[in-house]
From TrEMBL, chain A:
Function: Part of the small subunit (SSU) processome, first precursor of the small eukaryotic ribosomal subunit. During the assembly of the SSU processome in the nucleolus, many ribosome biogenesis factors, an RNA chaperone and ribosomal proteins associate with the nascent pre-rRNA and work in concert to generate RNA folding, modifications, rearrangements and cleavage as well as targeted degradation of pre-ribosomal RNA by the RNA exosome.
Keyword RNA-binding: yes
Entry protein name: Nucleolar protein 6
Pfam family, one: Nrap_D3
GO molecular function terms attached to this record: RNA binding
InterPro entries: NOL6/Upt22 (IPR005554), Nrap_D1 (IPR035082), Nrap_D2 (IPR035367), Nrap_D3 (IPR035368), Nrap_D4 (IPR035369), Nrap_D5 (IPR035370), Nrap_D6 (IPR035371)
SUPFAM superfamilies: PAP/OAS1 substrate-binding domain
GO process annotations (BP): rRNA processing; tRNA export from nucleus
Region (Disordered): 1-61
Keyword RNA-binding in annotation: yes
Signal peptide: none
Keyword annotations of the record: Chromosome, Nucleus, RNA-binding
Nrap protein domain sequence ranges: 182-324, 329-468, 475-633, 648-852, 854-1019, 1024-1158
TrEMBL record, chain B:
Protein known as: RRM domain-containing protein
Pfam families: RRM_1 (PF00076), RRP7 (PF12923)
One GO CC annotation: CURI complex
Keyword Translocase among record annotations: no
Length: 1167, 281
């Protein structure tokens, strides 16, 4: 299919050479001729890109239906068949433009390389000295090598390099921005080396010394900007000298890496067989040969592959260049793969999947004909990911060697020595020698995930896979760090890893890592889907200082991707007591393992972890981790910094409680279920109940602090005379806030319902009274009916039942046109009613369902809303919107998996807020998966597209200006975004985005950096310096004080006592009485035109006031715009300005008893 | 900033536009005052019995804690008052739905308001207008304290505790009236229908009102539905992809569709490029 079309393309192009030019010419002419409409359209299109807003594209009929040229046809066809759409193709092109090196940059590199090469040719000879004698080096240049053990045999002298050549990605053309590394291989002349130097780190030391010599030589020249040492992929045996051009314009991102290499073929590759030993125990341990004579020398595969790696860079370059010349899009394919790897933090550090491995992988696929030479870069990337996802290199290694010589080791020999096997073209070197199995598993997991997202037509795969960074902390549900790495030395001893330590030349971190990983993998078992770890970054240090010790590395981070089904189980059931595996189990768990008898009669080994509440159970992986590390690796708990539930504190109920509200929510839901059953079964109602629906966040597990049953101290309250209901007493602290849980009760439709809005309202009131009476008679619940709702006091909770009639919104919409025609016109009143009685209950039940699928949903909602509240955004972003945004994190996860802990959910929520392109795209939340698109592709030829999504997008673009700034589309609401109609405004959204980005930065730093003092609450303390006036409130009168971010110590009572609550009866408590919100409502009512008021609804004791600038510029006198203003008369002109002094006084008057003090912070408008 | 600065302290402060500035403070020891602007009520087109032109004082910028009673109290020093009306913004009177019980009238929005104060004597208006701005009106006095803040909210809360039987009574009263009204309507309709039937001699009285309920439903939705049905019928009769030109057209449409998408994508790319959205890191 592909071939002929291509051929024809080629021929056609030849033929069309002429025509094409003509056509393009005539097109231009058309533009110049300038039919008026066309000209304006052009300018409009340009305008669109200038202000960054998408507008619907309009093409004239002429443009749409002109006869296509062959080239255009081909282009369109290609875009259609190879990519999801032409958009992806263009995106790829743009991305490649962005990462590839410009010609100017290349010239810069070339000239710098040239200069350095010249300088290096002039390295002087020095006298031959003992290898351990480094006195010839000046004081300000140190050897980039950790000399452990101190001495080794051999002689060394400096000499000019035998050859200098470019290797690696730059000559291959796969070098990418932003950090441009150019590798320069400097060949050490053979007279410096000795064929036996492969032994006992002699060669690596000579190599390091040679680099030091080069550094000394280069330091005398001004042509070099800065110089420092590093090492290749964290391997301390392979130090590098990093050079940057002298400081000037755009020198910053260019780094030249000098590698010192032996002459080609200097060592025999067979010496470095993974089974052979090249580091003698006697030498390494410093014991005499006699003491170690009986010891078999252990193989040193990692040491061997290090040396082998030095021998081969030129060979590899030749191999890759040969491949690259055959496949046109090789370079672009590798570049894309590198971007993909980098976004996942997999391409740097020790044991990384480096760009070099990536190009080798592409070469492998090309050489095995899994991809063809004619494929595009995008196809190469896809195939690579597919290969990675489907091939397990830890089990079935691959090799690039066509016909390895007889001395080359076999694949099984490689497998016995290394965890991941990918053999280079020579057949001797394992390219993935340092990679841990877990890293490869992570690569595999990412590749599989990426493919899945790419095939999903409903999302922008490009954005998700190539443009979104996936740092460990935002990817994994739980994270822990090993802090004092020096402790790992003792684990080496405990695990008895001397020979491995020797193999890794004393790098105890890399030595222990695989063992810790396998230990944890065994212990965590099914609880985790993936155990990932950070790759320790390559250290860099100046030439005049000694190399950093291993323990000075940044801490190792481990990420756990939890399996929600098993992660929180408290029981680890082992094998039966008499089975042979029992011993193994006991060994793994140590003293925690006990024999237990289960209900089915089985007696097995088992481990029981603590934890009664969901919040404690979420931390079972932490217990396992610390226990195992302590038991087997001698790593004390104090060294393990586990960040899985650190943020839970802010949503914990009360100070000592260890529950984050899951249990309380469940109780509310159970009580509600009971109430709904009772409502259904009520006897004696004139019309039957057709539906009872919850319409409150606590019924979908997302209430930040779910209501708790309270036993009331009646002496604390006044009593209302006739109803005997409780009333707050003056002079006492404000009573505990009782949240009414809203429930909508739909009544049967019937001809008896009146067809008039006022009458419907009266009938509803009558229903409220009747329901209350019946509930009281039949179930003894205390009820209170009002025209708008019925409060039911049940199980210590209050349910606010609201009767709804399904035709009421319709009745509200009815109006008659002048001709007497009945028409339906939307109005805010009807919308509000519909929102309350139709949309909110639906949303509540849908999100309730989501909670059943994803246990972390409620926790994430609560944390996110707690953050919004603390940052004073609660009024701008209502709870439903916040819940929807969180829901989108679970439904549209790309490039992640659904969050498995509240912490990672919050981080992603902040990331979504701060990075989503609110201006140009609608956020589609596919609740219940109802939006599908595959049903009707517009034309049979087109691939399945997400018709619903496209429809939403087009509607959105067509009427962007009139839609809310934050647009959320759901299956039931594709065009209006009902939840965000009220806010946030443009300015508030801007601020929200800004604050979210900052909070995210602070939080991630807090969670990842152990050197910082841990106070993650910083992210929940709002900056108050931007506000003009602060109103401080009396803490006693703030009923939700205990929910504050920094809860103060409370030494007074709010009228509730400990103790269990009767399920029915009792006096009606004080419901929904919150002086702070009453005060805020009054302030907004009176001064809403002049100022904005912000307050944390969860125990905030400060109201922040921001004056609105436009209201403060003097205005002409107008009777309708005089609120809280005073006049200034100058001659005949009257200007009005806000009467700030009186307003501040009003703040105090209106909040009498609640306001503690008023602090005017800015002098700007104070008179 | 007070406009009266430097003037004789006992003179009223009148600003251009004819308004007199009265200052108003909450308590005698309050430090700052609001300016209430008063003027005699004068409108061109309105003839309203409840606001007689000569006796009505129009006041703007009345603070939220001044209820009608408070305003009555405040202005009674200028003369006896007949009525006080507070509104959110100036304008004509609406027919107040006094029929509704207090439980069903929506709560009025709190905030700064304008007032129409109708005195019993027209001289009081002049008295108010010539009041000096240096002698502020005081809202809350020892004898008649005005509750704000916490006290007010507690009172509000206990007021919101409605007695069930009173509410029921209000509902019953309304529904009774509603039913009565409806019955009357029915009656009327029936009479009309009766008129259209043949009388004894076989005569039918023809009126303008149409034929009552039997006609086609006269609503927008019904109209649209009918239109759609027509369209559907027409469409079903058409043949697709029968003639060559139709086939060609589909192909042309396809290419046009691709082109349109291509343009859209180009624009999107341009926008993204402008935002530097292609920098991966």
């Amino acid at each position: 299919m592909k071939k002929p079309s291509e051929q024809s393309e080629f021929e056609l192009e030849k033929e069309m050479g002429m025509d094409e030019e003509e056509i393009s010419h005539s097109e231009e002419e058309g533009g110049v001729e300038g039919e008026a409409p066309k000209g304006t359209k052009r300018s409009m299109k340009q305008g669109a890109s200038e202000d960054g807003v998408l507008r619907p594209v309009k093409l004239s009929r002429g443009e749409l239906y002109k006869p296509p040229t062959a080239e255009e046809l081909n282009q369109l066809k290609e875009a259609e068949s190879l990519f999801h759409c032409s958009l992806l193709k263009m995106q790829m092109e743009e991305l490649l433009k962005e990462v590839s090196l410009s010609e100017r940059r290349k010239r810069l590199v070339d000239s710098f390389v040239q200069k350095v090469t010249e300088l290096l040719q002039g390295v002087p000879h020095t006298e031959e000295v003992e290898l351990s004698d480094q006195s010839w080096l000046p004081k300000d240049v140190k050897i980039p090598f950790l000399l452990v053990p101190k001495a080794t045999k051999g002689k060394f002298h400096m000499a000019p390099p035998a050859a200098i050549s470019l290797v690696g990605s730059y000559p291959l053309g796969t070098c990418t921005k932003p950090r441009v590394f150019v590798d320069l291989a400097v060949t050490i002349p053979s007279d410096v080396l000795h064929p036996k130097d492969a032994l006992n780190q002699r060669y690596p030391r000579k190599r390091a010394l040679y680099l030091a010599g080069l550094a000394q030589h280069l330091s005398t020249f001004p042509d070099i900007g800065t110089m420092c040492y590093s090492c290749l992929h964290g391997n301390r045996l392979r130090p590098l000298l990093l050079l940057t051009p002298p400081a000037g314009k755009d020198s910053g991102s260019l780094t030249l890496r000098l590698h010192a290499c032996p002459p080609p073929g200097f060592f025999k590759p067979s010496r470095f067989h993974p089974q052979r030993n090249n580091v003698r125990t006697a030498w390494y341990t410093g014991l005499t040969a006699a003491e170690t004579a009986d010891v078999n020398e252990p193989p040193t595969p990692h040491y061997n592959s290090t040396l082998l790696g030095d021998l081969l860079p030129r060979v590899h370059l030749q191999f890759l260049s040969a491949v690259s010349t055959q496949c046109a899009s090789f370079k672009d394919g590798v570049a894309l793969l590198k971007v993909w790897l980098r976004q996942r933090e997999l391409d740097q550090g020790s044991g990384c999947f480096s760009g070099f491995v990536a190009s080798m992988l592409v070469a492998y696929l090309l050489s095995t004909h899994r991809v063809s030479n004619t494929m595009t870069a995008y196809q190469l990337l896809r195939n690579c990911l597919h290969f990675l996802a489907s091939t397990d290199l830890t089990e079935n290694g691959i090799t690039l060697a066509r016909s390895p010589d007889s001395t080359a080791p076999s694949l099984s020999e490689f497998h016995s020595a290394f965890q991941v096997v990918f053999v280079d073209p020579s057949g001797h070197l394992n390219l993935c020698a340092d990679m841990t199995g877990n890293t490869y598993k992570q690569v595999q997991h990412e590749a599989a995930l990426s493919l899945q997202f790419w095939d999903d037509p409903t999302l922008d795969g490009f954005q998700a896979l190539l443009m979104t960074p996936k740092p460990l902390i935002r990817t994994c549900d739980h994270l822990f760090q090993l802090c004092s790495l020096v402790k790992l030395q003792s684990s080496c001893k405990k695990l008895n890893l001397l020979s491995e330590l020797m193999d890794h030349s004393g790098n105890y971190i890399l030595t222990v890592l695989p063992f810790i990983l396998s230990l944890l993998q065994r212990g965590l078992g099914e609880r985790v889907r993936l155990l990932a770890h950070s790759l320790s970054p390559d250290p860099e240090w100046p030439v005049n200082s000694v190399p950093p010790k291993h323990k000075d590395q940044p801490p190792l981070s481990f990420g756990l991707l939890l399996n929600p089904e098993f992660a929180a189980s408290v029981l680890e059931k082992g094998p039966p007591a008499d089975s042979p595996k029992a011993l193994e189990f006991r060994q793994l768990w140590g003293s925690r393992s006990e024999l237990r008898r289960f209900q089915d009669g089985a007696i097995t080994e088992a481990v029981l972890w603590g934890g009664t509440t969901a919040c404690e159970r979420r931390l079972v992986p932490r217990e396992i981790t610390t226990h195992l590390l302590q038991l087997h690796a001698d790593i004390p708990e104090s060294c393990v910094r586990y960040t899985g539930g650190l943020l839970d504190d802010v949503i914990k109920m009360g100070r000592e409680a260890n529950s984050t509200g899951e249990e309380e929510s469940l109780k509310v839901v159970q009580s509600y279920d009971d109430l709904s059953r009772k409502l259904w079964r009520l006897e004696g109602l004139p019309l039957s109940v057709t539906a009872v629906q919850g319409a409150h966040p606590s019924l979908r597990y997302s209430q930040v602090f779910p209501p708790v049953p309270l036993k009331l101290d009646y002496s604390f309250f006044e009593r209302e005379k006739t109803t005997r209901a409780l009333v707050p007493k003056e002079g006492k602290p404000c009573p505990t806030y009782i949240t009414p849980v809203k429930v909508i009760c739909h009544m049967e439709g019937s001809g008896k319902w009146p067809h008039d809005q006022l009458a419907i309202r009266h009938i509803k009131a009558a229903f409220h009274i009747r329901l209350g009476e019946l509930l009281n008679q039949q179930h003894r619940y205390t009820c209170h009916a009002t025209p708008t709702h019925l409060d039911v006091y049940k199980d210590g909770l209050v349910f606010r039942v609201q009767v709804a009639y399904h035709r009421e919104p319709q009745v509200l919409r009815e109006s008659f046109s002048p001709e007497g025609m009945l028409c339906y016109r939307d109005n805010p009143e009807a919308q509000k009613l519909e929102l309350e009685t139709l949309h909110r209950p639906f949303l509540t039940s849908t999100l309730h369902g989501l909670q059943q699928q994803h246990a972390a949903f409620g926790g994430v909602c609560r944390l996110a809303k707690r953050w919004l509240g603390a940052q004073l955004f609660s009024t701008d972003m209502n709870e439903d919107t916040a819940d929807l945004l969180v829901a989108s994190l679970f439904l549209q996860t790309a490039p992640f998996t659904p969050p498995g802990s509240p912490q990672v959910g919050l981080l992603r929520f902040l990331h979504l807020l701060s990075t989503f392109d609110w201006k140009n795209s609608p956020l589609v939340v596919n609740l219940n998966g109802q939006l599908t698109g595959d049903a009707k592709p517009t034309f049979p030829l087109l691939p399945p597209t997400a018709a619903d999504y496209i429809e939403i997008k087009n509607d959105f673009i067509a009427s962007r200006e009139t839609l809310p700034v934050l647009f959320i589309a759901t299956p039931k609401d594709k065009k209006l975004s009902i939840w965000t109609q009220e806010g946030p405004s443009v300015q508030m959204l801007q601020r929200l985005v800004m604050v979210a980005a900052e909070s995210l930065r602070v939080l991630e730093a807090q969670l990842m950096d152990p050197s910082q003092e841990q106070d993650y609450r910083v992210a929940l303390r709002p900056p108050l310096d931007a506000y003009d006036v602060l109103i401080h409130l009396q803490p006693k009168q703030v009923p939700l004080l205990a929910q504050a971010v920094d809860p103060p110590h409370i030494n007074f009572t709010r009228g509730s006592m400990p103790g269990s609550v009767a399920s029915a009866g009792g006096a009606l408590p004080v419901i929904d009485f919150d002086p702070v919100s009453l005060y805020l409502a009054e302030l907004r009512g009176a001064f809403g035109e002049l100022a904005l008021f912000f307050c944390d609804p969860y125990g905030g004791t400060v109201i922040a006031v921001l004056w609105k600038p436009p209201a403060f510029s003097p205005l002409p006198f107008k009777t309708s715009q005089m609120n809280a203003r005073t006049v200034e008369v100058t001659g005949e002109e009257v200007r009005t300005v806000p009467n700030v002094e009186a307003i501040l006084e009003d703040f105090r008057i209106m909040g009498e008893g609640l306001v503690k003090s008023i602090e005017a912070r800015t002098e700007r408008w104070v008179v | 900033m007070a406009p009266s600065k430097g003037k004789n302290s006992n003179e009223p402060c009148i600003i251009p536009g004819g308004f007199t500035v009265l200052s108003l403070q909450f308590k005698t020891d309050s430090t700052s005052c609001h300016s209430v602007f008063v003027k005699e009520h004068r409108v061109r087109a309105e003839k309203n019995a409840s606001r007689p032109l000569d006796r009505t004082l129009f006041a703007i910028n009345i603070p939220p804690y001044c209820s009608e009673e408070v305003v009555r109290e405040l202005f009674s020093q200028f003369g006896p008052i007949q009525s006080v009306e507070l509104k959110e913004r100036p304008g004509g009177t609406e027919s107040t739905e006094s029929k509704l019980s207090k439980y069903f009238t929506p709560a009025s929005k709190e905030g700064f308001r304008v007032g129409y104060i109708v005195f019993k004597n027209s001289s009081s208006v002049t008295a108010a207008k010539s009041h000096s701005s240096d002698q502020p009106l005081v809202v809350s006095t020892e004898q008649k304290p005005v509750k704000t803040g916490l006290q007010k909210w507690i009172d509000q809360y206990s007021d919101s505790l409605i007695q069930k039987d009173k509410l029921q009574a209000a509902v019953d009263k309304f529904m009774e009236e509603y039913d009565k009204q409806k019955e009357e309507m029915e009656q009327k309709k029936k009479e009309e229908e009766q008129q259209q039937e043949e009388d004894g001699d076989g005569w039918v009285k023809v009126t303008r009102g149409g034929r009552g309920g039997k006609a086609r439903p006269h609503s927008e939705a019904a109209n649209q539905k009918a239109l759609q049905r027509e369209n559907k019928k027409r469409k079903r009769k058409e043949l697709l992809n029968f003639y060559t030109w139709q086939h060609r057209n589909t192909q042309r449409e396809h290419i046009a569709e691709l082109r349109r998408k291509f343009e859209e994508d180009k624009q999107r790319i341009a926008v993204l490029r402008a935002q530097r959205k292609f920098r991966p890191y």
